[in-house]
Design a protein that fits this description.
- The structure is a single chain.
- The chain is mostly helical.
- Helix content is 85%, strand content 0%.
- Helix 2 (47-72) packs antiparallel against helix 3, helix 3 (74-100) runs antiparallel to helix 4 (103-127) and helix 4 packs antiparallel against helix 5.
- The longest helix has 33 residues, at 159-191.
């Protein structure tokens, strides 16, 4: 995969620069907070800590929605926020299903996650011509599969492999973030 965000346009305003930066790190935030939640569930930490982590996770789609609201309007931002919030909720349910060993629930939830990923890729590619549906599907599906595999190895006690997966997941979030940021940059540059 190529390095998407190869340049920063010197003509961008500070606000546009901030939006591009946010686009680059949103997926790293999601991966990091999912990881924290996974640890708290695995070690049966204080339920209040788990609840606070869920609240943090659920704030991330709103942040992303607010970012795209600036370019695509309220209706688009609200719809995407709902779809991404559903995705985060499904990931949380997968973690619980894996913890209790409910294979049927894991399979059903994984199918729902893949449907959600395809829905988001389709949605985003329609609002920004610089985001390609097949590219987005690949990026989101890889993120989803790696996150599920991360949780599986964590609950199975395969911590060495788990750390390798998390490291790869973080690297993948940089690719996702660069793709999102490049799409925003191109949209700003060519839509003006």
């Amino acid at each position: 995969m190529s390095n998407y965000c190869k340049f920063i346009d010197p003509n961008l305003t500070q606000g546009e620069d901030n939006i591009i930066f946010r686009a680059r790190i949103i997926w790293r935030d999601i991966a990091t907070w999912i990881r924290a939640y996974l640890v708290y569930v695995h070690f049966e930490s204080d339920p209040k800590l788990q609840e606070m982590t869920i609240n943090k996770l659920m704030s991330l789609p709103v942040q992303f929605g607010n970012m795209i609201r600036l370019f695509f309007g309220d209706a688009v931002a609200d719809e995407y926020t709902d779809i991404l919030t559903n995705y985060i909720g499904l990931l949380i349910h997968v973690i619980h299903a894996l913890k209790i060993g409910d294979v049927n629930a894991v399979n059903e939830l994984t199918d729902q996650l893949m449907q959600n990923a395809n829905q988001r890729a389709d949605f985003l590619s329609k609002i920004n011509p610089f985001w390609q549906k097949n590219e987005l599907e690949g990026l989101i599906n890889t993120f989803t599969n790696m996150t599920i595999h991360e949780a599986e190895t964590f609950f199975s006690g395969d911590y060495e492999n788990n750390l390798r997966i998390f490291d790869r997941l973080l690297a993948h979030t940089s690719i996702m973030g660069d793709y999102a940021a490049q799409g925003v940059m191109n949209y700003l540059k060519y839509s003006a």
